[in-house]
């Protein structure tokens, strides 16, 4: 109740974007600082080292910042966003994906496109991305387990990519499949879900400008644990809809089967829009625990969950007239 | 009369201090901010786990005495049981104040509608009368009723084990291993009591049918 009346944090708490984007230079500057400091007693101290996060290992990506869809809320630390993941193909503990994904090879990568579209076949990732400008989108990510993060993704609107395949008029849904390589993904050895992982969207959801096909986060290529090299980000739906490491895209007329929905239909619907009014058997969805900024505070970790994860203004019209409790 | 050193009495402060170590470690991790990306969830998990561990250790004392004849352990039982209640209370307080703090209406719906929260809350609730009647004077005042009342600890233990088991996400078989192990330990501690229970119910039946029951007295 308290926080969400004004979700914006104090301006003083935000790292200015210019500083965030220049953090590499700042780090370099820091390395030379001792030499500069020698002999000049009154030089200002450089930024304390604790405030600087370790650099992500992936290649640096150039992306256009400042999307109108981006939130100004405090970012989740890159360390937390890359070490607290649900990616069961690498294990079911939150720390497993970062720990168990070193054998995963996201290059070279290709995606097979099939179903009701004029252009189908297998395409190299480079060809899929060619001609598209990367942009940064800072989105809220709401997990069905009632925690959330704020992550600066890098990618392209899914719509721009899908249009190139010229979907047919009767293509009403888009189905996605995650890669399944048992030799590189130790979690596949356990029958947690019916592998490979599958997800799907209605075509208007897939074509919505908010829906992002992401290739990076925090200015870098996606690490394996976050869904390298290509994943979906659908910010108004629970996290499991944002399928990782995509190898297949199919245009279908019928609603495609989706992994969590198949395993427990009562608990996980096809739509899975973030909805504080529809409770899960184990987690109330009314509120969420925000993992952002870092540090332990005795209060104020919990926020009111908003319908469509705060993106109602953009997406509520997609579901006009629908019973969102039945179609959860 | 010569003063004999009571080793059990001397050991009590040591056990007391040892039982506070998990709390100290948590305080240290809060201070150093090393509880991981979701510190509140970690805090809930750890305090709950220690409550269950102390409860199981408390429940292990009676079978241990039967097995080894080491009756001195009995004198630590109350302290260990109270620590189980203490960690369960911290666990509940973290959940209510740190985690759900401010969202009071949600507290009620969670307790009423989430089965795993309901059983966890009941497990804690049932420990209150046990903690409240744990003093020597209450034991004396309640007499035979005391022992019957304190059988609630078995219900509390069962609910606590269920609480742990029930929150595992569907399909997370690996995550279920730990709760299953704890539930298994609880079940073993109950099975270990079976011979005593059977013998006592036989004695009771024998007493009811008018025959004189041999062996140990009915109320201990």
From TrEMBL, chain A:
It comes from the Bacteria. Pfam families: Oxidored_molyb (PF00174). Mo-molybdopterin binds at residues 85, 88-89, 143, 178, 226, 231, 242-244. The keyword Metal-binding applies. GO terms for biological process: protein repair. Belongs to the MsrP family. This is Protein-methionine-sulfoxide reductase catalytic subunit MsrP. The lineage of its organism: Bacteria, Pseudomonadati, Pseudomonadota, Gammaproteobacteria, Lysobacterales.
From TrEMBL, chain B:
The keyword Cell membrane applies. One of its GO terms (biological process) is protein repair. Its cofactor is FMN; heme b. GO terms for molecular function: electron transfer activity; FMN binding; heme binding; metal ion binding; oxidoreductase activity, acting on diphenols and related substances as donors. Keywords: Cell membrane, Electron transport, Flavoprotein, FMN, Heme, Iron, Membrane, Metal-binding, Transmembrane, Transmembrane helix, Transport. Binds 1 FMN per subunit. Binds 1 heme b (iron(II)-protoporphyrin IX) group per subunit. Part of the MsrPQ system that repairs oxidized periplasmic proteins containing methionine sulfoxide residues (Met-O), using respiratory chain electrons. Thus protects these proteins from oxidative-stress damage caused by reactive species of oxygen and chlorine generated by the host defense mechanisms. MsrPQ is essential for the maintenance of envelope integrity under bleach stress, rescuing a wide series of structurally unrelated periplasmic proteins from methionine oxidation. Belongs to the MsrQ family. This is Protein-methionine-sulfoxide reductase heme-binding subunit MsrQ. The gene is msrQ.
